[in-house]
Amino acid sequence: MTVTPVHPAEATTGPEIELRSRITVELVDHAASDIGVVRAARVSTAGERAHREERGDDYIGGLIRYLMRSRHGSPFEHNYMTFLVNAPIFTIRHMMRHRTWSFNEESARYKDLESVFYVPDSDRLLKQEGKPGHYQYVPGTEEDHELVTTSASTAYRAAFREYQRMLDAGIARELARTVLPVATYSTVYATCNARSLMHFLSLRTNRADATYVSHPQREVEIVAEQMESEFARLMPLTHAAYESYGRVSP
């Protein structure tokens, strides 16, 4: 766990808060394999035999490459991967934009939220140069990182103080939570199939060799990179074909 200490100048009277930069993704369940893609593809021509026949890696890899190249996408849908994601709320909202997931998120209507908030680590590029659609991020100075940390901790502490004050007064959680920032950490179960995941990866990773180069926000890219690592481990031939054909979802 990466924890950034609050700057001494901000150590004023108020609730204790934790500033965290680490974003984690854990694979908690799955039914995903390369042979599953092949069986789904072959059932249209081989019928029930497709469920019984086993083929070697050369055949499996060749068929998967054909499916990827020809953009026959449905065989890649007969599997699932479930991830447990711990990230700031704004990052989880980026995931939800894709509408390709099944989600269950911890609810601030039913439980008290912990005082854990996101701050970027020292490697995060802080400054934006250029106009929207044609900009790039550049590093900040040590003073810039200190400004982000101290400003954020001031705002987070004030927000959590008011959140706790309302809870202590008996205000409903669903109303008290309205003062908390989107940098508050949340936990979500997220499930998708390989086709949906490849679509997500194509938009939320920055790869110069991709057919369509994307420029995602770094925090959601961290989520995507961890998911891709598990995907490549579970379905290596599918992942290799995805890479070979420009990282475009079939």
TrEMBL record:
GO terms for biological process: dTMP biosynthetic process; dTTP biosynthetic process; methylation. It is an enzyme of class 2 (transferase). The active site is at R204. Pathway: Pyrimidine metabolism; dTTP biosynthesis. Binds 4 FAD per tetramer. Each FAD binding site is formed by three monomers. GO terms for molecular function: flavin adenine dinucleotide binding; NADPH binding; thymidylate synthase (FAD) activity; thymidylate synthase activity. Keywords: FAD, Flavoprotein, Methyltransferase, NADP, Nucleotide biosynthesis, Transferase. Its EC number is 2.1.1.148. The keyword Flavoprotein applies. The keyword Methyltransferase applies. FAD binds at S74, R97, H98, R99, E105, N193, A194, R195, H199. It holds the Pfam family Thy1. DUMP binds at E105, E106, S107, A108, R109, R177, R204. InterPro entries: Thymidylate_synthase_ThyX (IPR003669), Thymidylate_synthase_ThyX_sf (IPR036098). It catalyses: dUMP + (6R)-5,10-methylene-5,6,7,8-tetrahydrofolate + NADPH + H(+) = dTMP + (6S)-5,6,7,8-tetrahydrofolate + NADP(+). Its cofactor is FAD. It comes from the Bacteria. Belongs to the thymidylate synthase ThyX family. Homotetramer. Catalyzes the reductive methylation of 2'-deoxyuridine-5'-monophosphate (dUMP) to 2'-deoxythymidine-5'-monophosphate (dTMP) while utilizing 5,10-methylenetetrahydrofolate (mTHF) as the methyl donor, and NADPH and FADH(2) as the reductant. This is Flavin-dependent thymidylate synthase. It comes from Streptomyces curacoi. The gene is thyX.
